Amino acid sequence: MAKLAIAAAIYPALVSAYTWRFTSQPTQCGNVTIAVNGGTPPFSVLVVPYGISPLPNNIEARKIQSIENQNGPDISFKLNFPANSQFVAVLSDKSGFASGGTSVGVLVTGSGDASCFDASKNVAPAFFYNIEPGGVIAQCVSTRIWWDPSAVQGTPHFQGVIPGGQSFEIPGNNPTTVPNQGLGFNWVPPLRGGTTLLLVSGDNRGNGSGGSSPYTVGSGPNNDNSCLNSDSPSSTPGNPAGGSYQTSTNAPSNNSGHETNVAAIAGGVVGGVVALLAICLIMFFFMRRRRLRAEEKSKIRPDLLQADEGDEGGASGVPQYYQPEPYLMAESTVGRSSLGGLTSDDRRFSQTDTDGRPLSTLLSDTASRSGTPDPSNMSSSTRKGPLRQMRPVNIIQHSDAGPSAPPATAEEEEPETVELPPAYTNINK
Hints:
The chain is α+β, with helices and mostly antiparallel strands. Helix content is about 10%, strand content about 20%.
């Protein structure tokens, strides 16, 4: 019971005794009206910036606004915030700070008026404060809040603002001076780990004159919960204070039409692009392989020993045209006859067959050998494949016996014969 009494004394407004709401959605540089139902005047509202700034280069042009109304229950003021930014409103009456509760983040909608803020300049509070350990607020872990006494007016005061929850005053009695930390006090946060907290500071110049900083309460190294109880400040379930209003740019619209499934369309487009790329890669692969095969074929060198089309090779596999023919020796003849100035023992022939190939038999003997065909009478139809043109070659047969021929006279003198090997210059490729 003693702990509950102390908690009620420190946080007098844990439960709202009255209600309030925005009469319209707040707009940029527009007038905002809060209608209050119940409570005890005077009423006041603390408007604290929430979330990141929507201005270019993250310029922070929002300042905490604290507005009081001494007469009626309604509170009206001009909101000096840009469009697409958010704020948290804390309503108080005579009973104490945050007695009316705290709203969640409220979205500021656009308007044609931008004269209430400077989008090119960051705002600065009247004084700064610090916490130790730096930048950390943990559940039930002692935290020192301190400031430069020369920068404040009077005694600074601090509030803990929980969006959509129970905001509270932070007790700062009996501040002390610590070397390198200035003037300040120690505070044990009675907050559960994971709670979103806006630490707001002010002095005699008004609530929020020292600015605010956002924190997420940690659980601490030992997860100490000795300072927690059922009355510890936290976010409240159910409808937040201030009524229902648009809280973000992604809030659902009132249109009853069917919404387009953007994710499904995007997925279909991506899938189609991937399939098209796969088809193109497959086509490129086959075309490249076909081109490489054609290049390999073009690099094959012709083999002169390969048989031509329709030319059948013999038993040795060599084309018929290149197969050797036996040399048929002529039979002995009676008598000696002269042919071109030579005897029958030294005969020279220049006859060739029909395809220009020299014959290997003696013409004088072909008629007397019934078993030997006459090459000169062979038709081209008896040979397979096309005939090749050969260079005419003289064939000279020498005998190693018998009397020599009588010397030729001057009129019959034969020109000198020079034997040269064939040049094969007339063979078709």
